[in-house]
Amino acid sequence: MGLFGNLFEKKFCSVCNGEIGLLGNRKLEDGNLCKNCAAKLSPFFSDRRRSTVAQIKEQLAYREANKQAVAAFNTTRSFGKDTKVLIDEDARKFMVTRARNLAEANPDVIDFSQVTGCDLDIDEDRSEETHQDSQGNYVSYNPPRYTYRYDFNIIIRVNHPYFDTIKFQLNSSSVETNPDRPVAAMNKPDPQSCQDYREFETMGKEIRDILLNARQTVRDEAKAKAAPKAAVQCPLCGATTTPDEHGCCEYCGGAIA
After folding, report:
1. Which of 64, 112, 167, 240 is most enclosed, with most CB atoms within 10 A?
2. Tally of structural domains, the chain
3. Nearest 5 degrees, angle CA 74-CA 77-CA 79?
């Protein structure tokens, strides 16, 4: 009775106080979470079980505020076919999503300055092909023949309070370099000869370079802004002045070239 009593005991969400249906509970370190509240968390967040109720509430408040960032997001460049990297060059932000309705999906909007690294990882999978012999058994070719498939993964590392890695696949299905005829290992085709391979490799490298270069630009600008400014002579009033944050004379307010 004790076992079944616990199983069918009503549970309530520690965040919204709503009743949690059978098998709908998402355990927290010190409470319960319903599937509706869990669905509002970042898709890149993976530490729910070790999170407290207070931490989940903080994240949900951030996710609510993120809706405004999504509404203000202006996509200037887009990469990917299924999962996409959307970039707002003017605001220096990006997001990763496969959703068409951005307002509904509420993808995390991330600053370029939060990027700590980005890699393109190309996975190769080699599978041996077989054929039926005269007895109907599947046997290897002699010499063995293989089909080669490739997947293109982007790994973005970020300095973010709720996740530190975004990993996704650029291609929706594996790229085969020899789809019509498997080949012996010694005759492995050059993947660069495949148009789809070249397309996804170029796309991945472009995403990597854009994010890394954008991150470096933002950091260089912040470093330059924080550096102490040398005193110069104002060409307008002749005073020796240290330009303010706008590059203007502290005495006459004129712009110093």
Report:
1. 112
2. 2
3. 125
